[in-house]
Amino acid sequence: MKKLIATAIGLATILTAQPTVMAANAGQGSAFDFEFTSIDGTPMPLAAWQGKVLLVVNTASFCGFTKQYAELQKLWADDEPKGLVVIGVPSNDFGGQEPKAEGDIKSFCEGAFGVTFPLTSKQVVSGAAAHPFYKWAAAAAGPDGVPAWNFHKYLIGRDGRMIASFSTRTAPEAGDIKAAIEQALAEPVPVSGGKS
Please, is 26 exposed, middle or buried when counting C-beta atoms within 10 Å of its C-beta (0-12, 13-18, 19+)? Predict the structure, then answer.
């Protein structure tokens, strides 16, 4: 019953959220300052992708939006040669919809959706215990840009700054996301590599 109530509250929040929030960009630091651990247990510093455009998405394997993995994989396949890096961040924060261990998550993503883009280890993405990247992203995107459910998306520019935040219900191949990605990819690679 508790899971059902949590799911209902989460879905109500999604359906009333703005589909796209343009983020404030002043003095917020850089996404490249943060590090995750990969789903395989190795260090995964975002600085490894300095000068790239990042689409960072909190994911879950047992969510009604899990089919978005297929669209994320298509974005990765189409735009990785242009400089896009899609990063999946498995999280059990919303509705308990990512309960399994990293090995099971990786096998599911690769088997069910052919995922080849980078995945992090399971992370907390909301609240006081959120991963430092997600605390930074919440501050950079503002209150309307905080994940309220699985498959919330952050678009990070080549300079490591927050460009935009997209709600769960905005599909990865929606026109506004694709246009924002194309615009970000058109920006020149910063000479400094994006470090602030």
Answer: exposed
Distance of CA 155 to the CA centre of its chain: 8
Of 53, 55, 63, 137, which is the active-site residue? Answer: 63
Token pair, residue 34, equals 């943060």
Beta-carbon contacts of residue 48 (< 8 Å; ≥ 6 apart): none
Q: Is 109 a catalytic residue?
A: no
Q: At what angle do helices 68-79 and 102-113 cross, to 10 degrees?
A: 70
Output the pTM of the full model.
0.86
Assigned CATH for 2-186: 3.40.30.10
* pLDDT, tens digit (0-9, with 9 covering 90-100), for 38-70: 999 999 999 999 999 999 999 999 999 999 999
- C-alpha to C-alpha distance for 165 and 67, rounded to whole angstroms: 19
SS3 68: helix
Residues 110, 112: Cα–Cα separation, whole Å: 6
